[in-house]
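Appendix B. One record, verbatim.
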Amino acid sequence: MKKLISIGVVLALMALVVLPVAAAADTYQEPQTYAKIPFAIVASGFQLLATIWPDLDTALTMGMPWLTDVFTALKDWSYGPLSWSVDMLAWGLGVGGTVIDALSGVITLPFPVGDLLNSIACACFAPFGNITGAAWNPCS
């Protein structure tokens, strides 16, 4: 019985190592900016699950083939709308910094809040230069 369990564990570990490499190599999408790389990693994980789930579901007789559609939807969402959250946060901070800078003659703040917000916005964008497009630096 111990040998049977050991063989099952080895096969499961091989499936976790060999199948992801094959699936990831088949459907790689290059992100447009470095900001999208963490989201591309998450999306690749969901793509992997969507690719191997039909075989895994059949082998384990779980009866949940609909999970393939769930994993595909999560992949599309994480590489699409979720990945733009970094850009939108930085854009919102930049707008806030610009508004506070414009109001600097009307309100008095103990330190330059507008500069702080603009610095945070630039830090969100700085390590994320374009990979495939023209050079872009919002903080120059």
